[in-house]
Amino acid sequence: MKKKILIVVSDYYKDISDALLKSTKKYLNKKKTILKIIKVPGVFEIPVIISKNIKKFDGFVAIGCVVKGETAHFDLISKSVIDAIMSISIDSRKPVGNCILTCFNYKQALARKNKGKEAALALNSILYK
Fold first, then answer.
1. Which domain holds residue 78?
2. How far apart are CA 102 and CA 67, in angstroms?
3. Is 116 a catalytic residue?
4. Angle 108-20-78 from CA coordinates, rounded to 5°
């Protein structure tokens, strides 16, 4: 039976999120999955979209990037979003592959643009166990 996967992508840093999405899709088990992609403006919106769709899908991948600036925004957003995603996953007992980069600068984010592979492989390992 095919598994339904929702990929939620923050396109605030579009070039990075596009690369993360490409590497995620490449490693998802395409023969056994039905993919849907929803784009949101920032990573803060990702947990809400996953929550709204929790009953419709077997698993999720959260894709985005937060780059540290000169304010506390980076710390607050990063922790809030990761904590929310973890809570959703535990409460629903559904896997969420985390592909939200939290980098100190844009150069670090670019160097990690293929990290979608890790989120996809982690999701596959849980869904098809």
1. 3-127
2. 6
3. no
4. 60
User: Residue 13 sits in a domain of what CATH number?
Assistant: 3.40.50.960
Largest CA distance in the chain: 48
Are 88 and 96 in contact by the 8 Å Cβ rule? The answer is yes
pLDDT, one tens digit per residue, over 63-95 is 999 999 888 888 899 999 999 999 999 999 999
Say which of 73, 75, 86, 111 is annotated catalytic.
73
- pLDDT > 80? residue 30: no
Q: How many domains does the chain have?
A: 1
Q: pTM here? A: 0.94
Phi, psi (degrees; rounded to nearest 5) at 36: -130, 140
Q: Cα–Cα distance between 113 and 100 in angstroms, integer?
A: 10
